[in-house]
Each structure stands twice: as C-alpha cells, then as structure tokens.
Design a protein that fits this description.
The protein has one helix at about 1-15; strands at about 30-40, 45-60, 65-75, 80-85, 85-90, 100-105, 110-120, 125-135, 150-160, 165-175, 185-200, 200-210, 220-230, 235-245, 255-260. By secondary structure, the chain is mainly beta. A hairpin with a 2-residue loop joins β11 and β12 (about 200-210).
Length: about 260
C-alpha cells in the first residue's frame, strides 16, 4: 500500500509540477493499446504475453510528462519477464519441462518526461531528449516484472527528407535493477526507420529495433515493426501494428491495436 501511494504521488507530481502551460493547443493525451507477443526468447519454451498500457500524457510547451499504468498477462516457464513494457529473458534458464503457467496482474508503472531541444521549420529536424523511470509495481513472484527500479535516458530524432517521408532514429540507455541473485546487463536500445504519409490522415511507420540482451551471453533482441495510424482529426486516432523477430532473443511475432484521444 505504501508503494502504491508513493507511485501515485510521483505520477501526480510529474504531471502537475512543471507549471502552467500555454493555452494554445491540446495539452492532454490519453492512449491505450492491446499488445500480444509470442516467442521462445532463446529459452526453448514458448512465452505468450499480453500487455495493455493506459497512458496519460501532459504537454508543457516544448516539454511533456507521462505516466503509464499497465495490465500484464504472461504464459511462461519463468525464464521471461516483462521489462519496461516488453517481454525479455531475465534468467539463464527457464523452469522445468511442463511448468508453463499463466499469471496476470498490474505491470510496472512507467514515468516518462521529455523536452524538444530542436524543432525547425520549414525543413523540420526534431530532436527530443527523454528520461524515464520504471517503478517495480509488477509482481516478481508471478514473473510479471523484475521487482526492481530501472531508470534511463535517450534521444529521439525525426527528419523530413522529402514530402511525406520522415526518417526516424532513437537511442535509449537504461540502468536495469538486479533482482536478488541475478546480475542483469544494463540495456542500450536503438531503432531506425521511416514514416510515410500514405494519404491524408493515414501514416505508415516502419522501424528496425535492436538492443543487447539482459542476460549475459544470450542473443540480443532484433525485430522489425510496422505501424499504421489513422487520424480522424487533431483529437482522435487509432493504430494497428505487427512485428517479426529477427533473432533468438526476440519474440517470433507480435500484434498491436490501440488508440489515443487528445483534449
């Protein structure tokens, strides 16, 4: 209970303490999605994961802050946990044969903030610096999280290179908390790709994603992800996506469906 009060206080402070924002524009954004992934992640047994985040984001001029509270359901032998919203191998070995069980509950709360360092017109080059922290609200006993705090920072870059075409590149470094008796690697994650306007209010984004493995000596995740977003207007949007794993450390495939509302 004390942990939940602490998380609620941190979330409220992150969203409200940055001071008054400009009256122009839509300052709040709510979003949610269903994210299903399935794979062996190098363990030899299959893990299936459902991740349902609920995110509230607040803009403060060139800055933003958000809090994400997720629901997680995993069918696993214990060698894979959810870390920062994605299934990741967190043990050198899984459980005994036939030990796969399904466990569900609250995931790790994620606090995130960012600032637009650069935003140029008429040839946009957008550079945003971000910071994030993961609070260990997910049950380690159920295999829904590591039970430890994580914290990291990164940069996000977007460059308009031709009408309707935007090149994207992101890099994030996260200090991963070690559960008792486990020594996990800190994680460097990068992605690169493009966004293409297919027609008015319809956009395709394709990203190649890669990171090092949390467990020393295991293959790092590599996958390609595609997302199609349709905007009804400046306030509402829906999206769907799919991913394919390119390494033994990734899920074999993933699908997602969600939406967002600005106000």
């Amino acid at each position: 209970m004390e942990r939940q009060r602490l998380i609620a206080t941190l979330a409220a402070g992150l969203l409200c303490a940055a001071g008054p924002a400009s009256a122009e524009g839509l300052l709040w954004k709510m979003s949610s999605s269903l994210n299903f992934e399935s794979g062996t992640y190098g363990t030899g047994t299959r893990t299936s994961s459902l991740y349902v985040p609920f995110t509230l984001r607040r803009s403060f001029g060139d800055a933003f802050a958000s809090v994400t509270i997720p629901y997680v359901s995993m069918t696993s032998d214990g060698g894979v946990s959810n870390v920062g919203g994605r299934p990741s191998r967190t043990s050198g070995r899984g459980g005994a044969a036939g030990s796969r069980t399904t466990r569900s509950g609250l995931g790790d709360v994620i606090l995130r903030g960012g600032y637009d360092v650069l935003r140029d017109d008429p040839h946009p080059l957008d550079l945003t610096v971000v910071a994030k922290a993961k609070a260990p609200t997910a049950s380690r006993a159920k295999g829904l999280g590591t039970g430890e705090f994580d914290a990291g920072a990164g940069v996000e870059l977007a460059k308009l290179v031709a009408p309707g075409w935007t090149v994207l590149a992101d890099a994030y470094y996260t200090a991963i908390g070690d559960p008792p008796g486990v020594n996990l690697n800190n994680q460097l994650a990068v992605d690169a790709g493009f966004s293409r306007a297919l027609r008015e209010n319809l956009t395709l984004t394709v990203l190649l994603e890669a990171s090092n493995a949390l467990v020393p000596g295991e293959p790092g995740p590599r996958d390609v992800r595609a997302i199609v977003e349709h905007r009804f207007d400046e306030t509402a949007a829906v999206f769907g996506g799919a991913s394919v794993g390119l390494s033994d450390g990734s899920s074999d495939y993933g699908i997602s469906l969600g939406g967002s509302l600005r106000f």
